[in-house]
Structure formats: structure tokens, C-alpha cells
From TrEMBL:
All residue ranges annotated as the SnoaL-like domain in the record: 7-100
Protein name: Ketosteroid isomerase
Keywords, in A-Z order: Isomerase
The keyword Chloroplast belongs to this UniProt entry's keyword annotation: no
Record carries keyword Isomerase: yes
A single MF term (Gene Ontology): isomerase activity
InterPro entries according to UniProt: NTF2-like_dom_sf, SnoaL-like
Length: 110
């Protein structure tokens, strides 16, 4: 899977609650830096998404994808189950050995 396809698979895994796919696209030492917190480790992040995230029925429409030499940036929106916009975001994905090693999320509030 190429980097753009892997980034798209990340959002598909979140939206479809496919935690096996989510695990498959993340490196074991995955780090996610968000405005409100940082997750260290694939297992911790998947656990949060499966059991602890405040809103589980969300979607992540992608508005644009930008590719760099070793990163992919995705501009999109986080929508609630009624399609109300929760926030806009830009996610910057870094890769190692074909999987997501690091993710940095940027929102208008941050």
C-alpha cells in the first residue's frame, strides 16, 4: 500500500471501527500528537479509539491530500453522526517501513 492509500485506510479504519486495519497501518511505536493530548504506542492509541473516545459515530471526509518527500498531509473535517462539523483538521503523517510512525494533528483551535 502506498503512503496516500495508507493514510486513507487510517480514516476508513476509524470511521468503520475496523481496529484490526487500524493496527495494521500503525507502527508498534506509533505516536499521535494532538492539540489536547499525545498518545504513545499503537496499542494505547487503538485502545483509546476502541474504548475511550468521546464520540464513536464520527466520519472524516477528506478535502485534500498533499504529498512530500517522506510525509503525507491530509486536510479534512471531523463530522458528528448527524453530519454536523465538529472541527476541521490537517493531519501530517510520517512513515517508516510502509506504516504510519507518527501523526501530528492540527486544528483551528490549536
Amino acid at each position: 500500500m502506498d503512503r496516500v492509500a495508507t493514510a486513507r485506510a487510517y480514516y476508513r479504519a476509524l470511521d468503520e471501527h475496523d481496529y484490526d486495519l487500524l493496527s495494521d497501518v500503525l507502527a508498534p511505536d506509533f505516536v499521535h500528537e494532538r492539540p489536547d493530548r499525545t498518545f504513545e504506542g499503537r496499542d494505547r492509541f487503538v485502545q483509546f479509539m476502541r474504548e475511550e473516545r468521546p464520540q464513536t459515530e464520527t466520519s472524516h471526509p477528506i478535502d485534500a491530500v498533499y504529498t512530500g518527500a517522506s510525509t503525507v498531509a491530509v486536510e479534512g473535517r471531523l463530522l458528528a453522526s448527524d453530519d454536523a462539523e465538529i472541527t476541521r483538521f490537517v493531519d501530517v503523517f510520517a512513515f517508516e517501513d510502509g506504516v504510519i510512525d507518527r501523526l501530528s494533528t492540527h486544528t483551528p483551535e490549536s
